[in-house]
Amino acid sequence: MSKFTTSLQFQMGDQDPSETLSESEAEKRNDNGTLTFSQFSSTVRAVVRIRQKYQAMKKRRIEMAVSGTPFFSSSRSTSPKIFTFDGVVGDNSINLGRRKKKKKGRVLFPNNSRRVPPNMEHSRAKNCLVLLCVIVFLQVYNAIENLDDHVLKYDLDGLEKNLKREVFGQQEAIEDLLAHLKDYLSTYVHSKPLVVSLLGPTGVGKSHLGRLLAQHFRSVVGEQLVLQYFVLHHCPSEGDLPHCTQTLTSLVSEMVSQAEEEEKIPIFIFDEMEHMSAELLDTVLTLILMRDNNEYLNAIYVLISNLEQEEITKFVLQNSSSVAVMGRPRLSKELNPLLLSNLKKHHSLWQEAELMPLKLLEKSHVMECFIDEMSREGFYPDRSHVERLAEELSYYSVGDREFSRTGCKQVVAKVNLL
Hints:
This protein is of the alpha/beta class and about 425 residues long. It is about 55% helix and about 10% strand.
């Protein structure tokens, strides 16, 4: 019996005999240390099962070692499961194919910061818009500065003071004239020349206003860029019309060319327009409508005449009550449509002009003319003496107001007799 047991131990190889016998089998031993036949047969069967299982495990371990598969990852293994990280990795690899739902991240803003997502990209269009606004602002500011420079160059403030001091009773016409001059002289680029027509009865200050304009602009732009054209003096007879037309055209062309080089605006003052022939009127209109050359667009034309003086006198006398009331519409706005309809029949030149009618002078304005002329001649302007001289003139009486029939035209002759 002992020999059979020893041989059985050798057949099991590395298996320890003490490991093959369970504790229950050890308890069944007899007191003398021998086993019965039934006990021996059950022991042999247990040993055979253990050996078979051991051989199978050993073979499977070798196969898995060759294929690189972990031994404990087999689902058919009967060995006790021991926790390893390899199993966790394997389970995660199975779930890789599953689509995971992305959770939207919440953006938390600090209390003292702007609520802008940290990863948001700002549009470059905003920067371009800001740059464009800055450029436009600089251009507008530069344009305003240039406007001021142009106006200061012509000293319109000095002209305004001089006109208000020298011309009496024509406040409305002076304001309209200065407004047009300021708008036109504020820039050097124009689409057409400025044409101003001074209309009114005899003695209201039309020619005096033209002389003051010529004197002022000679001092600011030069003698060569101011033309004061008297029709009866420069073209006295109709036989000289071709020569007068050619001379006027060449003279205006030279002046506008010189003004273009010096970047200045010339002024042309035509007095006694009521005596100008149709040929000369056509020539002046052609010069005004000259659009081929830009140099002709930068010019000022002042047309002085006593055309429609009857209409102006009639309108002023009929509306004498509204003339004295402040806050009423300006007389030129009501009178200009009537004047324009009549002037177009005379010549189409006045369609291009801004009409500025000068109203009749009252007795108080005539007295101011006497005081100014007497001061120029060195006489002391005594009030009683001035009133006595003013009484010698003729007037239109409308209510309690008196309008001079000849304006200040006879003032110089009266003072010269003193």
